[in-house]
Design brief:
By secondary structure, the chain is an alpha+beta fold. The protein contains two helices and five strands, in the order αβββαββ. Strand 4 and strand 5 form a beta hairpin.
Length: 96
C-alpha cells in the first residue's frame, strides 16, 4: 500500500470516528493543505492533521496549523494512528 493510500485510509477512519460522535466533517482530499479533516458540531469547529506510523508534524507545520485554527476560530488537533489501530490525539490549539 502506498503512503498516499495509507494516509487516505486513516483520514477516512478519522471521518468515521467523528461522524459516530455527531460531527459534520469532510476531508481535504489531495489538497496538500495543513488540514486533512474539517469538522463542525454545535457551532464549534475542529481542524485535524492526520498522521500514521512514524509521521511527525514539523514546527513550521505546527505554526501553520495554529494560524489556520485562529483564522477559523477552531480547535486544532493532530491525530497519530499507531500500529494496532490505536490513535493518539494531541491538541495543538484549544478552541473557543
Amino acid at each position: 500500500m502506498s503512503q498516499y493510500a495509507k494516509g487516505r485510509a486513516y483520514e477516512y477512519k478519522t471521518l468515521r470516528i467523528l461522524r459516530k460522535k455527531g460531527w459534520f466533517c469532510h476531508r481535504s482530499a489531495a489538497s496538500h493543505s495543513p488540514v486533512d479533516v474539517f469538522a463542525g458540531k454545535g457551532g464549534k469547529a475542529l481542524l485535524i492533521q492526520v498522521k500514521s506510523g512514524r509521521g511527525r508534524v514539523s514546527e513550521d507545520s505546527r505554526r501553520t496549523l495554529i494560524e489556520w485554527g485562529k483564522a477559523f476560530n477552531a480547535r486544532v488537533e493532530i491525530w497519530s494512528f499507531k500500529k494496532g489501530a490505536s490513535v493518539e490525539v494531541e491538541t495543538v490549539l484549544e478552541g473557543p
